[in-house]
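Just curious. Invent one:
>
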Amino acid sequence: MAPSQTPCRRPSPCVGDKRPTPSGCSPAPRVAGNAGAAGCPAELPVYIHVYDVSNESYIQQLNALFAHKSAPFRLGGVFHAGVEIAGREWTYGHTVAAGTGVTWREPRTDPQHHYRETVNIGSTRLSVRDVGALLEKLTSEYQGNSYSLLGKNCCHFAEEFCQRLGVGSLPPWVHRLSRMADSVGKVSQSLEKHLTVVCPASESGAQAPHAHQALPISDSGAQAPCEKRKVSKEAKVNPEDKENMAANSSERRVGPSGKKLGSTRDKAWVLL
């Protein structure tokens, strides 16, 4: 009797590049692959293609300085990453219009970036069909208009893709600097929110300090301090007090000789 073999999972009714849906079969991201022995899917190797961001020479020099290929330790750099599986390289990028930002191309051929090197990150035990289902989810989750240079970029997509494939994380140096910058940005936002809570703006409606001392503005746009003082003084004096003040003032202006005091000297004598 021939030895028993572990049976492969039976294919779904929709074959090829179709997947079952409640209304029938719909197209799904297509992944090429070869079947292993006895029709079982073979393990698929996964590669990370690393690029220098853009084609600018100074970016290449910067990356060569901080992440030289022959260096025992690579600090990091400004890199773009794509994940190759089953002969196609999958990447994530920004789009203006709504829709997925996940695309694929021939490996190592991204025209917007300078190809640097390839890292063999391992092999996935997922079948070709499972990889297609995974890519279908990722294309929905990674919308092009939600791209963020620090919070959600190509390296974040490549990291999550590899994690779900079961092959681990990207080499740390590929996205170390971007993650550090993202962490600094999050700390800054958290600190700003904390300071806002500790020192909130006044919500009681009270005037700000010294606001009551603000001077009125005249029609011409110039401040009129004397006008405000005059109005305030008159508003505080009762009519009866005005008459008494006027009488007292008239009496004080008469000197000992019965003459009115007109000079400053005479007025000073009365005050003494």
In short: The CA atoms of residues 10 and 231 lie 94 Å apart. The two ends are 136 Å apart (CA to CA).
